[in-house]
What we know:
The chain has 380 residues and is an alpha/beta fold. It contains ten helices and 16 strands.
Amino acid sequence: MDIADIATSDYNEIDADERLGKVKSLFERSNPKGILVTDDGEYEGVITQKQLVQSHVEESAKVRGLIRSAPKVERTDDVREVARVLVESGSKIAPVVENDELWGIITEDHILEAVLDNLDALDVEEIYTDDVVTMNDKETVGKAIGLLREHGISRLPVLDDDGHLTGVVTTHDIADIAVRNVERQQKGDRSGDIDRILDIPVYDIMNSPVSTTSVDESVRSAVKRMLDNDFEGLVVTPSDDDRYVTGIITKTDVLRALTYTEREHMDVQITNVKLLDTIGREDIRERIEEVADKYQKMQVMHAHVRFHKHKETLRGTPLIQCQIRLRTNRGQVAGSGEGYGARTAFGVALDKLERRVLEMKGVQADEEYRGQLLQKLGDL
């Protein structure tokens, strides 16, 4: 299937020299997945709501200061390859070109709607992310922004003092309250209120009750709920108790699952490939395969490597966070680490991943030994 019939020529566009205040107004009015940025009619990149929340740029600044790259795709490209482009670029939107001219856009929603009926074959348990960042409902919006920025995520489950799920706060919630406060300031009402946004408890802005999914629900059912309610993700809970957080499933997780392929070598997907410096995709794949081979009973179906850049630098080299996650026949296994430059960060994360793999091997060996011992006792 190609994207010719699911891409759209209806999209939001803004000039690179416009003010960020106008961008915020566009997000407030129509809540698009992203806005295409052009310069004299030529495509320059995209801007997303997540970028606005994570930046400290004044509203009077120009849009071009926050432009991020989103690779162009052809209108006749295969839907699976376009899904891979969206995941690896960390974008929810990609410009579509036809005969080298900007034609329209393709979003993750377009793809998920097109493949919805084929998602019954997967359960949430097979693709959700179990490494979830949470916060307490008494903590502030400032803390939420810090966590969203630090981990490069767009939503945070909120827990009460008993560790029970009580709400969710997203980048959209924070952007919404920021826009409303700015509008009040411009009208002369409650001047200075914008300075106090960071001190507001997340309890006051979070979404509650929370729409959840369980580990045994079909991916089709979970995605349909996301599309129907314009959710970017759902909190995953145990099948027998929705008060506790098991993980998160997002539209990006589902897109990533669509790119799983049967290949001669391990299928490795890299998010934010632009951060690779002195290490290449092939080197990453080979080194992950070496770790996986140390535990022959663990069959790796898919590997996801995600890089995230912090603002801190050392002699011009940025501090990078790397997360590696393997989807295997024995569940998910992950490792993360930080370092200056992608190669160093990947090495630290891979070391932690290897320890987890060897721990799994040790646990499995202990279980096998215990089973043999019980069998011998039974024979006696």
